[in-house]
Design a protein that fits this description.
By secondary structure, the chain is α/β, with parallel strands linked by helices. It contains 12 helices and 8 strands. It is 45% helix and 15% strand. Strands 7-6-5-4-3-2-1-8 form an 8-stranded parallel beta sheet. The structure holds 1,3-dihydroxyacetonephosphate. 1,3-dihydroxyacetonephosphate binds next to strand 8.
């Protein structure tokens, strides 16, 4: 029996038009209706959020966004704020490696976004993870350590209770190359968890969920999720197909 309730969250990234989203959500709902021991989340593109909110209102699947701006309102063309999201969803992914690599996100902006989300009661899923180059240079621990400390800087114990961390080694995202269960658990258990304990105290640090992300599939999910400190997954490609996402959720049961 796991100490922490596992979570399986889908990150749809920039996929699914409204009609495609409708189809996927309608097919996921009955397939997952009996799941009560795993927290389920789908993080959709902004435009799909109102639909997801309506379709999933009476279901056991929560809705999340994939990004937000740290200001509440104002002259920030093209951006979406925490108060706007709060009316539509419960979770928000922050600091995904694709946003860090392609859209200029830094530890500092991640921290601002985490604070903005928490202020309105959104639950951040904060992503950390090293690139292939950093991994090969033996910098995994240093990079992940920095991202966790800087991203969660200044947060209280109460804040920490509403946070989920996702360790996503960049070299494993969308590449079909999964970190081995031992490799991933080593980072969760020996890098991320001790920092969380140090920052937020033993009990809260021990209770926080650390998801793994990077080429999780139905065939490798159970073995990953069985590790002591892997508390579920953040799923990209496989969250776009009902059978794959359901298969991964089964790995967490
Ligand atoms: P894949 O599952 O497609 O590797 O993506 C992982 C991810 O980036 C989830 O946020």
């Amino acid at each position: 029996m796991k100490k922490r309730t596992p979570m399986v969250a889908g990150n749809w990234k920039m996929n699914k038009t409204l009609s495609e989203a409708c189809e996927l959500l309608e097919s996921l709902k009955p397939e997952l209706a009996e799941v009560s021991t795993v927290d389920l989340v789908v993080c959709t593109p902004f435009i799909d959020l109102p639909l997801a909110k309506d379709l999933l209102a009476e279901s056991n699947i929560k809705v999340g966004a994939q990004n937000l701006h740290w200001e509440n309102s104002g002259a920030f063309t093209g951006e979406i704020s925490a108060p706007m999201l709060k009316e539509l969803c419960d979770y928000v992914i922050i600091g995904h490696s694709e946003r860090r690599a392609m859209f200029g996100e830094t530890d500092e902006t991640v921290n601002k976004k985490v604070v903005a989300a928490l202020v309105v009661g959104l639950k951040p899923i904060v992503c950390v993870g090293e690139t292939l180059g950093e991994n090969e240079a033996g910098q995994t621990e240093a990079v992940v350590d920095r991202m966790v400390r800087e991203g969660l800087k200044g947060l209280s114990q109460e804040d920490a209770k509403n946070l989920v961390i996702a360790y996503e080694p960049v070299w494993a995202i969308g590449t079909g190359k999964t970190a081995t269960p031992d490799q991933a658990n080593d980072v969760h258990k020996n890098v991320v968890r001790p920092i969380l304990r140090e920052m937020f105290g033993e009990e809260i640090g021990e209770g926080m969920r650390i998801l793994y992300g990077g080429s999780v599939k139905p065939g490798n999910a159970a073995e990953l999720f069985n590790q002591s400190d892997i508390d579920g997954g953040l799923i990209g490609g496989a969250s776009l197909k009902t059978a794959d996402f359901v298969g991964i959720v089964q790995g967490a049961l």
